[in-house]
Amino acid sequence: MITSQAQSTYNFTNCTRCGKKRVFLKTWKEELETYSGVSVLTHTETICPDKDCQKIVEKELEAKRVKNETMKAEREERVMKQRAQISSKKAK
Ligand SMILES: [Zn+2]
Asked: Does 5 score more than 80 pLDDT?
């Protein structure tokens, strides 16, 4: 039986919009310094072979990114406010 998790690891090679096999644009390596030494991360960027489709995908990704950042900022603001409330209660 194939789990959905195992399948999802292959999804990145197919376009999320049109389902075409994505092509490799570039790969690059990033060195990360960790406590146990330097570990090398390999990044792979793939694009849709359909230029128009890729443009739409990029727009969607950008919109998602902006939305995520807005949500993250709002969440951080809430946490900051909560912390301020807690510390003001403790001070009394
Ligand atoms: Zn596509």
From this structure: no
CA of 79 to the centre of ligand 1 (A): 39
Question: What is the b/e burial string over 48-86, where b = at least 16 CB atoms within 10 angstroms of the residue's CB?
Answer: beeeebbeebeeeeeeeeeeeeeeeeeeeeeeeeeeeee
Specify the pTM: 0.54
Ligand 1 center from residue 22 Cα (angstroms): 8
Q: Using one digit for the tens of pLDDT, what is the confidence trace for 21-40?
A: 999 888 999 999 988 899 99
**Mean pLDDT for all residues in the chain:** 85
Where do the structural domains in the chain lie, given as residue ranges? 11-91
CB-based neighbours (< 5 A) of ligand 1, an ion? 15, 17-18, 48, 50, 53
